[in-house]
Amino acid sequence: MASISSILSPPNNLLYNPTKPLTLAPKLHFQTPKKTHFQNLPSFTFSPLILSPKRSQVLFAVAEDTQVDVSSEAARKLYIGNIPRTVDNAELTRIVEEHGAVEKAEVMFDKYSGRSRRFAFATMKTVEDANAVVEKLNGTEIGGRQIKVNITEKPLSTVESSLLQVEESQFVDSPHKVYVGNLAKAVTTEILEKFFSEKGKVLSAKVSRVPGTSKSSGFGFVTFSSDEDVETAITSFNNTLLEGQRIRVNKA
What we know:
Elements: H1 2-16, H2 19-30, H3 32-74, E1 77-81, H4 89-96, E2 102-109, E3 116-124, H5 127-137, E4 141-142, E5 145-146, E6 148-151, H6 158-170, E7 177-181, H7 189-196, E8 202-209, E9 216-224, H8 227-237, E10 241-242, E11 245-246, E12 248-251
Antiparallel strand pairs: 1-3, 1-6, 2-3, 4-5, 7-9, 7-12, 8-9, 10-11
């Protein structure tokens, strides 16, 4: 029987062995490395919570960086105003490339008359080229006209851009149109329309903006329904004061 109990003792040991894992279980639960690590987890898990706004800030910063990239393109694009009507794309390119490498130069033409609208845009290959052109050409004379040269600005926000698009879409174009130059910065589309309405029936009016910005380009257009109204506007308003500046009015 003793031998039987000794034979049976190993199963008792085996039965006891499962209790060891049970006693070890607290050890597993107690494991200092894990517990200490877990205690540190709040600071670790807390930091992503703090970082989550930073993440959105990072995303926002990326969006801002994109705008900076876009604005760097805008920083290479020049507005060239008050140019003679005789200047075409080839002539403009020749004038501008004397001071820097030109990527593209384009004179704006009226879609009805085909005549130059007296302003143009030139995109330079580098920001340095663009700055050089502004420095050398702004305020100089071409064909007896003092030209304005400036760099286009940082793009508008979506809301501002939408508002300007609405304003642009409301403009009614017409072959009976006058160009109004030397506008003060304070002149808005509404002011321009009201001013010209004093001497005739205005079809529509708009102040031109530096592309992608709300900044006035210093000129605008007023449309009428007849040539008689155009002639009246030129006779009545050319060289008159509007918001403290003498404006130029001629056929567009």
